[in-house]
Amino acid sequence: MKQVLQQLFGAFSAAGLSPRPRQQTEDGRISALHALLQKQRFAELNQQFARLPAELQFPALQSLSCNGKAVENWLLLQPNLPALLAHACTLLALTRKLSSPLEQHTLLQEADDCLQRAHTLAPDDPLPFCVGIAVGCALGKDMDTLEERFAALRQRAPRHYWGQLQLVLAYTERRDDAGMLAFARKMHRRSPRGDGCNLMPVLAHLQIASRFESLADREAYCQRSDVHDDIVRCYLRSLASSHYVVNAATSHQRNHMAVALILGGALRHGLRELRRLDGYDPQVWRLLAANWRENRSPALIIDRLQRHRPARKASKPAALPTVLRSSLSQMTQTIPG
To answer: Which of 202, 210, 188 is nearest to 255 (CA)?
Structure first.
């Protein structure tokens, strides 16, 4: 009887019906939103979106926007705040696939109209301002206008990571490196020491490095003494001494931090960060693959990491983190020799 009950409780637990349900991951919560969107259960979708932590709402909007037709139905049937913002993100993504400036401007203007309606519905919500920075940048708004939107966002959410990131990307579009680095350092100074929540200077340096075509040029930029010191200083101040806090924002930053440390030649810190990520983010290479494919391939980074690992560790494949083992098994050696 005891064996039968154990099997029964095990089945309930596997189905998520145990008294202590399994903790749902961030990706799991976004997948649940996609399922509700596909089934057109919009009332539940609105409730689940409202329950998301603040740092996950913008990534959720970006993810939902990939399903444009379903988002359009959502907006037609329930024109509320998340539906308007998801539709604006959908239109913004569509403009990147169009070649006609007139068609692009028409879609961006429609996205801006969605944002105006969103501001009317929720004037104190920071999300419309965050999406508004991205849409305004695509519309060609000047930096003063975008900074005004960011200032309004900060009044509502002083440490809104995704809003800060959108402004960094806007500076990148304008090729204003001095302005971008000044803004990034200001945001970093306002971040409490050791909270692991703000690495804007590192993200800014990666934006500059990504303009170079070859990996060697990117490494050369990140290994300049001033850039290298900036990256390591940010790491030691924000992450090295902090308790590991996992959310959508810190996971995004830590993925980029690992890349920056490796490119900058701080391999000991880079390996440490990758090991920490392996424990909490089972798909640590997903973001790297999205941003470093082709000549920016993560295989280059992984290969270089393996070459710099101590010989005694390299000789023990079982000691490699799971993610590194799977990545290395799928990728060919890409650095000659």
So the answer is: 202
Record the tokens describing residue 223, joined without a space. Answer: 């290994």
Q: What DSSP character marks residue 318? A: G
Q: Please return the burial class of 19, using the count of CB atoms within 10 Å of its CB with bins 0-12, 13-18 and 19+.
A: exposed
CA separation, residue 298 to residues 83, 155, 218 (Å): 35, 38, 13
pLDDT (0 to 100) of residue 189: 86
Helices 81-95 and 54-64 sit at what angle, rounded to 10 degrees? 50
Amino acid at 206: L
The predicted pLDDT at position 291 comes to 47
C-alpha to C-alpha distance for 172 and 217, rounded to whole angstroms:
18
Q: Which residues contact 193 (CB under 8 A, 6 or more apart)?
A: 237, 238
The structure's pTM equals 0.74
Q: Which two tokens stand for residue 12?
A: 């309930």
Q: Which two tokens stand for residue 34?
A: 């996609």
Low-confidence ranges of the chain (pLDDT < 50): 1-2, 4-5, 8-9, 12-26, 280-284, 287-298, 305-306, 308-337
Alpha-carbon span 214 to 259, nearest angstrom: 15
CATH of 54-174 given 3.50.50.60, 3.50.90.10, 1.25.40.10, 3.40.50.720: 1.25.40.10
- What is the rounded distance in angstroms from the CA atom of residue 216 to the CA atom of residue 5? 60
pLDDT at 196: 61
